[in-house]
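My current task is to audit a protein record that another person submitted. Thanks in advance; the entry in question is below:
***
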Amino acid sequence: MAQSAPSPVRLNVTVIVSGNEENARRDRQCLKQLKASMIQSFTSGSEAIDFLGVQDVDLVVLDTALSDMDGLKFLRLMRLNMNLKDTPVVMVTQEGQKDRVLEAIAAGVDGYVLRPYSLETFQRHMLRALKVDKLVEIETAQLQEGKRLLAAGHFEDAIEAFEELVSEDNQAQKYYDMGCKYLMKQKYGQAILSFKKAVKINELFAEAYKGLAEAYKGKGDLEGYKTYLQRAAETFAHFNRLEETKELFIEVLKYDAASPNPFNSLGVRLRKAGDLPGALHAYRQALELTPDDENIHFNMAKAMHFMGDAKGAQDSLLKALWINPNFTEGLKLHLKIFNREFKAPKGAGMTGGPPSTGTLDSMQDI
């Protein structure tokens, strides 16, 4: 008799949370194929949360409807608990509507499987969720080495280990941007992985900066301690802004689906919320999709104007008016910024995109 292949991951404790007995039975059968050692089932979200509070769990398989709450509420409760925020959760549901998938991603799901599913599909999503930590395996090992040296009192060596980790640029923003682009293309699996990698990278950087602060404190260098403690705080704050931006972007995709460029809509929302750097970043993303949209250049001009970047505001505004010389709001802003009315130069309004920097400089002299 042929033996089944060994599972590529080790599952000690797995939890199924479902208000549907038949769904839970099917999920249990598939988990057994992954060689899960202990499978605990709950119909109540509250009881499952209590269990997770006292038991380390490798994976949670979550249904849409529970006996006392819906699956999304359960997932949000998990992510509010610092001890459960990284526990892999895969939703297995019959709800394939775009909005429901987006809501699950916003809440921090690690995978999304539609019922009915094949064994191969189920296992692929479970294994992908379980391997999120491996996305930053090398960096995690570097961080642990730094912590080991710090605990041993080898402060110089610890500083060297932590500095090696943060010597590269923090790539969290890059992966958040990738995640948003995948969401636009409805490539939800890739979007989830991108967002998860962004979170992991940002956490590693924050922990490394905290380690550097403690190492400098151990050396008696209080200035170094305060400097890196501030860097750690800034990194955590940056993470919070990225998470808020992700949730706003998902709101745009859900409720402003007719928008030709969701990054522009995101930028407007961020600007109104007072996050001008975030808005400017969103507008730059928007230009990658529609570079000849005068509204985006105009929105960039307004953001730069409020940020005190006079040259940037002028350049962006002139690009907007080059594309559309009759742009009413742009003409008003031109009068405010330049203190004179706009006179369209030869070639303005023609196809071919915004003008070059040299053309912009000459336009300012008109």
About this structure: The chain has three domains: 13-130, 134-247, 262-364. The CA atoms of residues 64 and 70 lie 6 Å apart. The two ends are 86 Å apart (CA to CA).
